[in-house]
Task: structure prediction
Amino acid sequence: MTPNWDDLRVFLTLAREGTLTTAAKALGVSHPTVARRVAALEKQIGARLFERLPDRFVPTSAGEELLGDTEAMEKAALSIDRRSAGLTDTVSGVVRLSAGEAMAALLARHLPELRERLAQIQFELIASHTLANLSRREADLLIREQVPDAAGLVARKLGRAAYAVYAAPSLASARGRPETWIGFDDDHTYMPGQQWLQARLEGARPAVRGNNWLVLREATRAGAGLAVLPCYLGDPDPALKRVGGIIPDVFADQWLLVHRDLRELPGVRAVLDAVVDLFQRERPLLEGRRGRQGPSQPSQTP
Result:
């Protein structure tokens, strides 16, 4: 008897996750269900598929052989799912759009007009640094600052985001006060503007640190210090003032990514076109050309 896909999918997930608990969570089933499905598959095949170690499950040689075939089956199943989704001609359904938290906040501000234009679309807006897997439809569209090296993706450049220094109005107008800086923590020094800030601080760490653009913005609004923020996040905020001009060497290109099998799906295509239109209209904001200058202007070079 040929193993059914549901059992093979459980086997594949356990091989990837390594434990019953994490596999069950990934599959949305109970811990005993995973164990029972794997045991049934082993009985049907007539071979032990996993070594049960104290802290994890490791595929046996038989499991490794089955793993390759199962991954090929998964790839084919996902392709069928994506292609069958494209057979509909209706602009409707759920479209998942994933972006970093700052960009997700920008999109959230424009949801009323997007919903008015696409009334039959249900939007799922996901704020995450993690690259969602478009092949598995963890998202339908991604906005990212780099184009990943992944097969099947189609990329379109939306524009280039500018960055500047921002502060609460009370700090922006203060003169002669020692500068206190807000920046990212040690795990996020790759974020735009952080190398510029490290050079300005001569390698010292910012006095206030976070791991999220929105946390940095809130700390800046509260008067905790100055921060490098994307202009599209800082300029529309009446509780922030720009301190100096755009930082010339700090920018981030914005790319819209879609899987090639999904780009002509009517709902996805409609949202894609609407996002492109939005970025064309908001180009001055993205490039920092609609900002309000604050009175204090620290040097833009370290």
User: Anything to note?
Assistant: Residues 292-302 have pLDDT under 50 and may be disordered. The longest strand covers residues 241-259. The radius of gyration is 24 Å. The CA atoms of residues 141 and 272 lie 8 Å apart.
